[in-house]
Write a structure and sequence with these properties.
One of its GO terms (cellular component) is membrane. This protein is mostly helical. The chain is built from 15 helices and 3 strands.
Length: 470
């Protein structure tokens, strides 16, 4: 088949719909699968469209549930229990809608692979570069924080056996090996192990703080009772920093695009997404309420240290496979974005040629080495990641999706009778966009203030002593 006829086939597939109005994945006369994103998928090539809905749901959970989620009790400590629950619930609803919008947008625009393609549709070539730049930078920094998390776990298990830089190097090496797995369907199998280990670790912590007399950071002698508060009294910067941490815990949204693109049947996307969001919300709610209730202001962030040194080792030991899986996913995603963009429209994308392997391993190595340099070189890393999360994470997990709704609905309905549901949808999309912009600006202010306070503190130590990982 010539390149021109292949392109014609792809265009026909993009316009083809099944009975439910979803894009059809068909085969051409030669028995080759034609996909709107990947093009021709031969039998002996990478099986990009081979992931079931349950595996997709597990991957979605793993993009969100990690050590970062253990910052929720600290956010509750800052905001108070009731405002904390309200903020957690509110952003769970907003991000669930954002994830729902991904499925609808993919249905209407089957050629979309990642958020960079959304940027191109919304704002042209400049939008594509800005959206992909934000996506890559965000996930590379998150990848660096994942290296820190793995290193922190190894450091806790070894009782500070070697320099932290060695553990970061070990994490980066493991990340390169695992992130080089070509397809998300294969990564979804190890994600089962990752989500199991991180959930067991989290609930081990939750149970342990409930049965212990007092948290590890509390005074160990004399009477003590938890000083948890229904409503906190934080300063504005403190409150926004706490809210930014909650948003960061739900910020796997942009990863749902490539996950949907690699599902065997995209009609099951919504089922996978709803299961993911329900599990994530319940886990965060239980962690936040139980750990904060029993620890009060003596909760640590991440919360694995709240139960004392022995249980900290146990929890990190259980969580280590989950931390490695997190490292795998957050390094694979930006590398895959670069890879697909570099080879899209070429036979090398779906055929295991020398060019295919050279480009793929180059993309993975580039992401790993940049993440390693960032993790090793930047002091006050947690504050910096909070800043990156506010500046980049908020737009790619909240703000962009309001614009996507208007792109899909404004042009198709501008001459139609706009009924009540259209007005409600438009109002909600505008609300989400405004909330996203506000959280980006206010969260950036809070994160900058945190970094300034950290550097101004007389207790500020060297970067190797202050890194706690996410």
């Amino acid at each position: 088949m010539t390149d021109r006829s292949a392109n014609d086939s792809i265009q026909r597939v993009i316009s083809a719909k099944d009975d439910d109005g979803l894009e059809a994945i068909v085969t051409n006369d030669e028995g080759v699968v034609i996909d709107p994103v990947f093009g021709k998928i031969p039998e002996d090539g990478p099986r990009y469209r081979d992931m079931g809905w349950l595996g997709a749901s597990i991957l979605m959970m793993k993009t969100q549930i990690g050590i970062g989620g253990l910052s929720v009790p600290q956010s509750f400590n800052t905001l108070g229990l009731i405002p904390g629950i309200i903020a957690l619930t509110g952003f769970a609803i907003i991000t669930t809608w954002s994830n729902w919008m991904i499925g609808k947008f993919k249905r209407n625009n089957p050629g979309v692979y990642g958020i960079e393609d959304v940027g191109k549709l919304l704002f042209g070539r400049l939008g594509r570069e800005l959206f992909q730049g934000a996506y890559l930078l965000y996930y590379i920094f998150v990848g660096g924080s994942a290296f820190i998390s793995v290193a922190t776990g190894l450091d806790a298990l070894s009782d500070h056996g070697v320099c932290n830089a060695v553990f970061i190097g070990v994490a980066a090496a493991c990340g390169f090996f695992l992130a080089s797995i070509e397809t998300l369907s294969k990564i979804s199998w190890i994600a089962w192990c990752g989500i199991f280990s991180i959930l067991v670790s989290i609930f081990t912590l939750t149970v342990s703080v409930g049965v212990q007399n007092r948290p590890a950071a509390a005074p160990q002698f004399g009477p003590w009772s938890s000083d948890w508060k229904l409503v906190g009294n934080p300063k504005f910067a403190e409150a926004m920093s706490a809210i930014a941490a909650i948003i960061f815990s739900f910020s796997g949204t942009a990863a749902f695009f490539p996950i949907a693109a690699e599902m065997k049947d995209e009609r099951n996307y919504f089922k996978a997404m709803y299961l993911c969001q329900a599990v994530v919300y319940v886990v965060y709610l239980v962690i936040g309420i139980v750990v904060y209730y029993f620890c009060g202001s003596y909760v640590t962030s991440p919360a694995l240290g709240s139960a004392g040194p022995v249980l900290k080792k146990i929890c990190y030991g259980i969580a280590l496979p989950g931390l490695l899986v997190t490292t795998t996913i957050v390094c694979h995603l930006p590398a895959k974005s670069l890879f697909v963009r570099s080879l899209r429209g070429s036979q090398h994308l779906t055929t295991r040629t020398r060019t295919h392997w050279m480009v793929w391993f180059s993309c993975v190595f580039s992401v790993i080495i940049i993440g390693y340099v960032i993790a090793s070189a930047i002091p006050a890393f947690n504050g910096l990641v909070s800043l990156i999360g506010a500046v980049l994470g908020t737009p790619i997990c909240i703000t962009a999706y309001g614009a996507m709704w208007f792109y899909d609905n404004w042009q198709f309905r501008r001459r139609a009778d706009r009924g009540t549901w259209w007005i409600v949808g438009a109002g909600w999309a505008a609300f989400v966009t405004i909330v996203g912009f506000y959280c980006m600006v206010a969260g950036t202010y809070g994160a900058v203030k945190d970094v300034e306070d950290l550097y101004a503190s007389s207790n500020f130590k060297s970067c190797n002593e202050t890194r706690n990982g996410l």
